[in-house]
């Protein structure tokens, strides 16, 4: 009996698993509230990437990601959320820019930079990779040509661990 | 009995253990650090013959956040020892610049400390922080957010704004710190989230309204300064399918200040946008009218000090070095502006689209002054006379005085697996007299072009070449100028620039660049600005070292600008977050 209870205690201690997704609410392109802490992807990896319409390297990174996104999704089930930190001077441009460039990511609007502050983003682009439990496993600031390959290696590691 | 006690104790222990553990497990600490160091050197070639005793500028911050479930708190420490050239001298100092604690359970959110928030598009209230400008107008006080039902949000804020390092508690009128108190409230109703029948509707609608007031202290010897100044705004966002429309109107009662030359006119602002987007195509049209809408918590505030609101500029933000020399900054006393942007992707697999598609973008923006007519003041017709009502202005009239126009076209094409080209043409009109305050200086009218070619050597390495040219229509080599106005011709005339960058993904980047003002009308200003930069990135840590010359110019983020003097030397930037 006592042993059983002890065992239960130990399991109790490890039942909770920690998520690094912050409790911050942003909006999607339709103005709907999205709480970042509640993002899920059926246990598959999630990428949050901060960008702005006026950020050259961000646009380059997104164009490169968009070219490979469908393949990545097929292979790993990863979901990419591109968080725009555009403020009121350019929020109206976000949707036309995203659609005009043909990007397939989920777009979120962080108009008041709440999420940017909560995740300590100084300058975009800044990319975060979370595993299926919402645990932060990798992050990277800046973009240079080919940078998406490193991200994919990390996504593959996370996706494999899951299996 | 003993057994039950044992079980109860064990269960209590389990739940306590689990709670303590989950408390610890839910505790998260994260933060970021950045240090920018500049070492200045004499450089007679670009006119730096005296450093005024300042060899070093250091700007640094460290920020730590703690979160645990619904609770979060954070502090930010800043050091300017002394501030880098181009930053305000008042920043010089070290200290705890910012702290906050928040509890938010979804229904109610309470924050005490330094608050960053905005109502609507910020026309009556926006506090924010922009490190690269040394700008921070945080409101130190309290905020309450209540969400009584889905789609319904009420906010209230109260406090005093950051003014460099001035103390918050005691006001020191001797040092011209007349900062007032800011209080505001905002309500937003999103019908789609609030009404179940509209949850999945193609028609989207949200409404909002805000009221903000400042209580300031009249210290003026010449004018009666109103001690309470209120401003209100209303907004509406509509959407149907691929269409979206939003508009916001703001009104402010009389608010004489150093910025508006102490006139007693009311202020108004209207901003609207209409957009259409579908896969591969997006278009947006924005219009804006602002009139006397500078709103500061201290009527003697200058430049960007103590802004309560934010008037967004609506124009394209250039990032290449030549076009960004002439970035527009919002004129607080009034402007009429319009912008049209179109993005289109020629689909993959078509003759023009090729294998990867071709991305096209067009942007046009223009800003003119508003029309100001004289008003009666003590039996005399006056315009903008201090102490008077200032002027009368027809809401729909556009002045012939054009501040700015930018027409640009961009093509972005991935040619093959290894080659990528971006090219842009820009036609620019920039009233440098109004925007930068060079009295009498001729308008900048220029054609600008750049070509950006990237070649992927292999999976990790790539080369990027950037070529830029800026050609002014009138002010070029041979343009006649008065000797006394020579200083106004710094950076004017024709420019050429080139940059070569070699990157090894994901860590390294090496680049060399030159900007050459070869066509300046003043011979001694025809300088080269060479720079070399090395940067290393490891995950969220970045180290960048650059050496060379920096031309005199304006650094702008979000339409708020700071001027940077010409300098020569070495810059080191280290930033990391965890």
> Which structural class matches the secondary elements of chain A?
alpha/beta
Kindly state the percentage of residues in helix of chain B. under 10%
In CATH terms, what is the fold-level topology of chain A? Answer: Glutaredoxin
The stretches of 5 or more residues of chain B where confidence is low (pLDDT under 50) are none
Most residues in contact: chain pair = A-B, 63 and 96 residues
Q: Supply the number of helical segments of chain A.
A: 5
Give the oligomeric state of the chains in this entry, treating copies of one chain as homo and distinct chains as hetero: heterodimer
Number of strands of chain A: 7
**Intertermini distance of chain B:** 52 Å
Please state the overall shape of chain A, judged from the principal axes of the Cα atoms.
globular
Main sheet overview of chain B: 24 strands, antiparallel, barrel
Q: In total, how many beta strands of chain B?
A: 30
The helix/strand class of chain B is mainly beta
Q: How confident overall, as mean pLDDT of chain B? A: 91
Strand content of chain B: over 45%
Mean pLDDT of chain A: 86
Order of helices and strands of chain A: HEEEHEHEHEEH
Corresponding CATH superfamily of chain A? Glutaredoxin
> Shape of chain B from CA axes?
globular
Number of domains of chain A: 1
Rg of chain A: 18 Å
């Amino acid at each position: 009996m006592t042993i059983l209870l002890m065992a239960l205690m130990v399991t109790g201690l490890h039942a909770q698993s920690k998520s690094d997704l912050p409790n911050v609410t942003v909006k999607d392109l339709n103005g709907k509230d999205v709480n970042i802490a509640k993002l899920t992807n059926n246990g598959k990896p999630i990428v949050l990437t901060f960008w702005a319409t006026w950020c050259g390297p961000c646009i380059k990174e997104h164009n490169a990601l968009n070219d490979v996104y469908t393949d990545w999704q097929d292979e790993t089930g990863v979901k990419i959320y591109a968080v725009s930190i555009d403020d009121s001077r350019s929020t109206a441009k976000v949707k036309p820019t995203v659609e005009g460039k043909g990007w397939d990511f989920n777009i979120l609007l962080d108009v008041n930079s709440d999420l940017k502050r909560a995740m300590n983003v100084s300058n975009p682009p800044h990319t975060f990779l979370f595993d299926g439990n919402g645990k932060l496993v990798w992050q990277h600031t800046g973009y240079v040509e080919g940078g998406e390959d490193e991200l994919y290696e990390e996504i593959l590691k996370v996706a494999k661990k899951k299996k | 009995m003993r057994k039950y006690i044992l079980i109860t104790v064990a269960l209590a222990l389990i739940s306590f253990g689990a709670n303590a553990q989950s408390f610890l497990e839910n505790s998260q600490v994260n933060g970021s650090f950045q240090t920018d160091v500049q070492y200045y050197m004499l450089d007679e070639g670009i006119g730096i013959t005296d450093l005024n005793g300042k060899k070093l500028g250091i700007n640094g911050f460290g920020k730590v956040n703690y979160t645990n479930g619904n609770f979060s708190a954070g502090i930010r420490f800043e050091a300017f020892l002394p501030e880098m050239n181009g930053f305000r001298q008042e920043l010089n100092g070290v200290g705890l610049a910012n702290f906050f604690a928040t509890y938010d359970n979804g229904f109610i959110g309470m924050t005490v400390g330094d608050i960053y928030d905005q109502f609507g598009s910020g026309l009556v209230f926006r506090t924010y922080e922009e490190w690269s400008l040394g700008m921070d107008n945080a409101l130190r006080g309290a905020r309450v957010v209540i969400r009584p039902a889905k789609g319904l949000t009420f906010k209230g804020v109260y406090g005093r704004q950051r003014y460099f390092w001035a103390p918050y508690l005691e006001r020191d009128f001797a040092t011209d710190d007349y900062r007032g108190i800011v209080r505001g409230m905002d309500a937003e109703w999103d019908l789609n989230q609030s009404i179940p029948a509209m949850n999945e509707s193609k028609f989207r609608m949200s409404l909002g309204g805000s009221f903000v007031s400042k209580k300031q202290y009249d210290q003026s010897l010449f004018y009666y300064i109103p001690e309470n100044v209120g401003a209100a705004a209303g907004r509406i966002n509509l959407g149907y399918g691929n269409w979206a429309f939003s508009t916001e109107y703001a009104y402010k009662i009389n608010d004489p200040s150093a910025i508006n030359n102490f006139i007693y006119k009311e202020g108004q602002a209207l901003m609207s946008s209409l957009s259409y987007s579908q896969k591969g195509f997006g278009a947006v049209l924005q219009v804006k009218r602002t009139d006397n809408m500078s709103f500061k918590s201290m009527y003697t505030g200058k430049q960007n000090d103590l802004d309560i609101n934010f008037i967004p500029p609506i124009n394209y933000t250039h990032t290449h070095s030549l076009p960004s020399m002439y970035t527009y900054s919002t004129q607080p006393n009034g402007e009429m502006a319009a912008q049209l942007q179109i993005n289109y992707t020629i689909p993959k697999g078509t003759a023009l689209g090729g294998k990867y598609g071709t991305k096209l973008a067009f942007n046009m923006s223009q800003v003119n002054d508003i029309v100001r007519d004289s008003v009666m003041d003590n039996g005399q017709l006056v315009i903008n006379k201090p102490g008077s009502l200032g002027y009368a202005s027809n809401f729909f009239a556009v002045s012939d005085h054009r501040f700015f126009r930018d027409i640009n076209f961009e093509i972005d094409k991935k040619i093959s697996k290894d080659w990528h080209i971006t090219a842009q043409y820009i036609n620019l009109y920039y009233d440098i007299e109004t925007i930068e305050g060079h009295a009498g200086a001729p308008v900048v009218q220029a054609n600008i072009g750049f070509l950006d070619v990237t070649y992927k050597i292999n999976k990790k390495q790539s080369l990027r070449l950037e070529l830029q040219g800026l050609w002014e229509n009138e002010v070029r080599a041979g343009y006649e100028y008065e000797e006394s106005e020579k200083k106004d011709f710094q950076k004017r005339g024709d420019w050429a620039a080139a940059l070569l960058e070699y990157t090894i993904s994901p860590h390294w980047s090496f680049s060399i660049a030159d900007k050459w003002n070869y066509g300046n009308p003043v011979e001694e200003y025809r300088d080269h600005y060479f720079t070399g930069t090395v940067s290393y990135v490891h995950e969220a840590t970045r180290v960048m070292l650059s050496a060379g010359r920096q031309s005199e110019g304006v650094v702008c983020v979000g339409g708020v600008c700071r001027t940077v003097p010409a300098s020569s030397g070495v810059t080191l930037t280290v930033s990391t977050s965890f």
